[in-house]
Design a protein that fits this description.
alpha/beta, binds ligand TXE, 2 domains
Length: 495
């Protein structure tokens, strides 16, 4: 059977197929579902050079903000109308349950609406410059920017990044993950229908270590926006540094979920399930460390294990399925390795712990809870799968210490009915995002990004929009005389 091939989207059309292809696999069945281009360095360089011309011609980079608003708003309408189709495709290429994909995708047009509104309403500034001088600050687009996106939320992350970059007037080179590129490759035609000038959004397929690397090494880029692993950041940072290309990096995490005794135990367990097992634990903010106060630890653990054992692991296309596949065989192996090492370190596997399958196929891993101690491998390192560390803490102080003792600092949640305690703890947690009595909550207006090895810079919000602009300072003098070199002038102003 010949697989459908989806070529790059370049200059407003699907380009003719590249000489090398790569296969996209449905992780829930192991079946090959499509091929995409494995784009060569030569083609990447050519596309970026043409994109530079597109940026310079000003059709989008100098378009009136009201025009950018109109295009992005229309793209939101078009996207909203196609959510059911996109949700099915996301499920097919990621193995995530259809109920998750419908819920997640239902909100992504909001990102385009938000950034459309920012394009239309964002204002420059006038500084309090001394004297008869007016200083205006205006924001200009950066140029040709690269966006390197992952497989776990293919459309959400691409839409977040695109919204900000396009609203600000940039030309975008978008490289989706080779593991789940199909939905993102469909965005080109959608934005074209919305009125985006051809060549403003270029979507390029390929392996990260090849095509991704070629893109990030190109000297014409004005910014790189990566969501991916620390190793990927480290692989691109050197060259980008040499080329003076700034990077926004949204990397991994090891989010603590701090559960205090003022909580009803049933509620605390529901909180933990939600924090830990969305996307089979494959999100950067997965609540991968359950830090539970000793006063509720026993009943909490008993109920938690009961609920996790009852999860419906199954075919992601089935609306009843709660836990789908993980992305690849490599991910299954990684989960297995973490479980084995945790057991060797004295961890207690309370449930799960093994690879599994659905209808005898696919890459699945049993939802797993391992009782462990602070400082263990599982407590400190990211699994990016459904293997969750459970840690008993004796006090509020200990919980804060444990929460802060990994090299990551992206997301964290604090669950307590004691208002003062919730704020006190949230205040002391070292993390880019802290939720109180919530987890995973996300909004286009709310800056999203971590510190330490979780990355730098923000997605979402005015911060993301501004990170796709450069500031121009225009200083208009209406009174300072250029008398500096005149003879014997007192109090002449120089600066
Ligand atoms: O990401 P990769 P992977 C983290 C998480 C996870 C780890 C590995 O910690 O365990 O990353 O996941 C492209 N030059 N997150 O292997 O490889 C690649 O093609 C340029 C966190 O899937 O970093 C893809 O488009 N590009 C995260 C993108 O980088 C390169 C979501 C991400 O892939 C490249 C996913 C290179 N040398 C993973 N190598 C989150 N924050 O949600 C790879 N790429």
């Amino acid at each position: 059977m010949t697989l459908p091939h989806v070529s790059n989207w370049v200059n407003g059309a699907h380009a003719s197929s590249a000489s090398h292809h790569l296969k996209v696999i449905n992780p829930a069945t192991g079946a090959e579902i499509a091929t995409i281009d494995a784009t060569s360095r030569e083609t990447v360089d050519d596309i970026i050079l043409k994109s530079l011309d597109t940026f310079k011609n000003g059709k989008w980079s100098k378009a009136d903000p009201s025009e950018r608003y109109a295009v992005l708003s229309k793209a939101a309408v078009l996207l909203r109308a196609r959510i059911p189709e996109f949700a099915e495709l996301e499920t097919e290429q990621t193995g995530r349950p259809i109920r998750e994909m419908r819920a997640q995708l239902g909100r992504i047009p909001e990102w385009l609406e938000y950034f459309a509104s920012l394009a239309r309403t964002h204002e420059g500034r006038v500084t309090p410059f001394k004297g008869p001088v007016i200083n205006t600050l205006t924001r200009l687009p950066l140029g040709v920017v690269a966006q390197i996106t992952p497989w776990n939320h293919p459309l959400l992350i691409a839409t977040k990044k695109l919204g900000a970059a396009l609203a600000a007037g940039n030309v975008v080179i978008l490289k989706p993950s080779e593991m789940a590129p199909l939905s993102v490759l469909k965005l080109g035609a959608l934005f074209q229908e919305a009125g985006l000038p051809d060549g403003t959004l270029q979507i390029i397929g390929g392996y990260g270590r090849e095509t991704g690397k070629y893109i990030c090494e190109n000297t014409h880029l004005a910014k790189i926006d990566l969501t991916g692993g620390l190793l990927t950041y480290q692989a691109i940072a050197g060259k980008a540094g040499e080329n003076m290309i700034p990077i926004t990096a949204e990397l991994g995490g090891k989010a603590p979920v701090c559960l205090f005794p003022s909580l009803d135990v049933t509620y605390a367990v529901k909180a933990a399930l939600f924090a830990s097992f969305i996307a089979s634990g494959q999100t950067c903010v997965t609540g991968s460390r359950l830090l539970v106060h000793k006063d509720i630890y026993e009943p909490f653990t008993e109920l938690l294990v009961k609920r996790v054992k009852a999860f419906r692991v199954g075919d992601p296309k089935d609306t009843k399925t709660q836990i789908g596949a993980v992305i690849s065989q490599a991910s299954v192996t990684r989960c297995t390795d973490f479980v084995e090492r945790a057991a060797k370190e004295g961890g207690n596997v309370l449930c799960g712990g093994k690879p599994t399958s659905v209808n005898g196929q696919g890459f699945f891993f049993e939802p797993t809870i391992i009782e462990t101690t602070r400082g263990s491998n599982l407590s400190c390192n990211e699994v990016f799968g459904p293997v969750i560390a459970l840690i008993k803490c004796d006090s509020e102080e200990e919980m804060i210490e444990v929460a802060n003792e990994t090299s990551f600092a992206l997301g964290a949640s604090v669950w307590s009915n004691d208002f003062n305690q919730a704020h006190r703890v949230a205040d002391k947690i070292d993390s880019g995002i802290v939720w109180i009595n919530g987890h995973h909550l996300n909004d286009p207006s709310s800056p999203w990004g971590g510190w330490k090895e979780s990355g730098m810079g923000k997605e979402n919000g005015i911060e993301a929009y501004e990170s796709y602009t450069k500031v121009k300072s225009t200083v208009m003098n209406y009174g300072v005389q250029p008398t500096w070199f005149d003879d014997e002038i007192e109090n002449a102003r120089y600066g």
